[in-house]
Amino acid sequence: MPNVRMVLLKGFDGEGFVFYTNSQSAKGEELAANAKAALVFHWKSIRRQVRVRGTVEMVTTEEADAYFATRPLQSRIAASASRQSRPLDSRAVFERAMEEVKERFPGEDIPRPSHWNGYRVVPISIEFWHDRPYRMHDRIAFTRPTRDAAWAKTRLYP
Known about the structure:
This protein has helices at about 25-35, 60-70, 75-80, 90-105, and strands at about 10-15, 15-20, 35-45, 50-60, 115-130, 140-145, 150-155. The protein is of the alpha+beta class and about 160 residues long.
C-alpha cells in the first residue's frame, strides 16, 4: 500500500533533497524495498506548492556522520536507543534503553548508530503550483527521464 509520513528536510543541493531516519523503521524498510519517493512542500499563506518525485539513495557515511554530530545530545541518545516503528511495551522500556546508551557512551560523544542514515531524493520531476482565483492555477512541471538528462519544462492544465 502507498504510505505517507512527514520528514524534516535537512538539506538540499544540486543532487537532491536530504532527510535522515532510522533505516530499520517502516520508512527505511519501505525505501530499501522500493527506492522511490515523493515530497510535497505546501505554503498555504502564499498559495504555493512544490511537488517532487524521484529515486532515493543513501547519503555518504561522511554526510550522515557530520549531520548526526550536529544534533542535540538527547536526540543522538534517542536515535541510538530507539527501535523506531517497532512495538514498545511501555515508555519505561524506552527510557531504560536511553539510560543504557548514556552509560555506554559517557559524555557527549555519541557515535552515529549504523541504522541511522540519511536519504537523498534525486528528483526526476518537480512541479510548481501557484493558486489563482477560480481554479485558474498555474502549474509548471520540470521532468527528466534520468538524473543526468536535461530538464524539460511543461505547463499543465490546472
